[in-house]
Amino acid sequence: MERSALYEQLGIRLDMAVEAHEILRQERNADVPGVRIIDGKHEHATVTTVIVESAEGEQAMGKPRGTYITIDAPEIRVNNREIHQKIAAVVASELSRLARLGPQDNVLVVGLGNWHATPDALGPKVVDMTLVTRHLHKYAPEELQGGLRSVSAFAPGVLGLTGIETAEMIKGVVDRTQPSLVIAIDALATRSVERIATSIQLADTGIHPGSGVGNKRSGINRESMGVPVIAMGIPTVVHAGVIAHEAIAALLQEFQTSPTLYKLYKGINPDALQSIIQGVLGPEGQELIMTPKEIDQLIQNTSRIVAAGIGQALHPGIDTSGWTQYLQ
Fold it and tell me: Which residues comprise the propeptide (predicted)?
């Protein structure tokens, strides 16, 4: 069974556009119509831009038309502040390119997720480290140095904690503060363990909170908010069904290298993979997601990098080496 079909049957949605494209291209052994790829290279990161340009591309990818930028930086896991600053500069550059803000535009930063669950706490953590200045523009304009843009931020929590749809809360703040742009940060689900806390995705299509782990929430996008929405996310979890499938796929790949085992490989019913995986996981395991034991430190590192990238992109007048002095 093809990965895309198996994931659909298991109810797994790929948050990462670059992963969805990789799977489709492997299955088709050809480029995906209506989708364009641009690759870039930096000292400590590689950047892959997936541009969904047509309705055909939307249908194939399962994602709305728009631009999806993935920054892969394995050294995020290395405890090196200098390298993290350079990765943050890449984030700032890509965010600036995607946002295209004018000098007077104001921005609302929204940290999605549950601050009581570490793998889902990326958004609130980023908000804690975000340089907010909207109040200074109103109450202390004399403190505005270095061309600080008007930025506000909040973390609305999740439906289970507040009883209010996240999109409703954000819409209320948007209507009240009238931002030119909303930046929504959320934790993502990935199909690759290697991508956990090492990849950063930016998209100008908005976001559907919780979709990667099977929760269907109201969308936070231009249509629902009335202003452009850029989604930023970092993978923090992998679905257990994905890990099980990748292990079986690796085993079958080994079968193909042995003439004796190849006959056995050819006799395997692809549809049986789903039954095997579902049988191993059991009823409760269908919603099981996995995260590393060091997720606390990883969330701390990644939230600092994302907040630094946002700060440098939104306040370009501040020197990149000194902007942290403005943090609370």
Answer: 1-15
**Listed range (111-115, 273-277, 314-318) with the worst mean pLDDT:** 273-277
Cα angle 205-243-271, degrees, rounded to a multiple of 5: 95
Q: How far apart are CA 182 and CA 146, in angstroms?
A: 22
Pairing of β 66-72 and β 199-203: antiparallel
End-to-end Cα separation, the chain, in angstroms: 52
pLDDT computed for residue 212 by the predictor:
44
Q: Does 97 lie in the same domain as 57?
A: yes
Kindly state the greatest CA–CA separation across the chain: 78
| Dist. CA 217–CA 209, nearest whole Å | 6
Domain count within the chain:
2
Those residues whose C-beta lies under 8 Å from the C-beta of residue 70, and which sit 6 or more positions away, are 16, 17, 18, 47, 48, 49, 50, 199, 200, 201
CA 232/CA 221 separation, integer angstroms: 12
Same domain? 164 vs 143: yes
- Across 221-238, b (16+ Cβ under 10 Å) vs e yields beeebeebbbbbbbbbbb
- Residues 94, 178 within the same domain: yes
Give the residue numbers spanning the domain of 256: 244-284
Name the more confident of 328 and 319: 319
Express as a percent the part of the chain with pLDDT over 70: 82
Integer Cα distance of 225 and 177 in angstroms: 12
Token pair listed for 44: 């400590």
Beta strands (DSSP E) in the chain are: 35-41, 46-52, 66-72, 107-112, 151-157, 181-190, 199-203, 229-239, 289-290
Q: What is the pLDDT of residues 204-215, one digit of tens each?
A: 999 865 444 445
| Mean pLDDT across 256-283 | 69
The pTM of the full predicted model, rounded to 2 decimals, is: 0.87
Which tokens is 327 given? 């943090």
Do 262 and 171 lie in one domain? The reply is: no
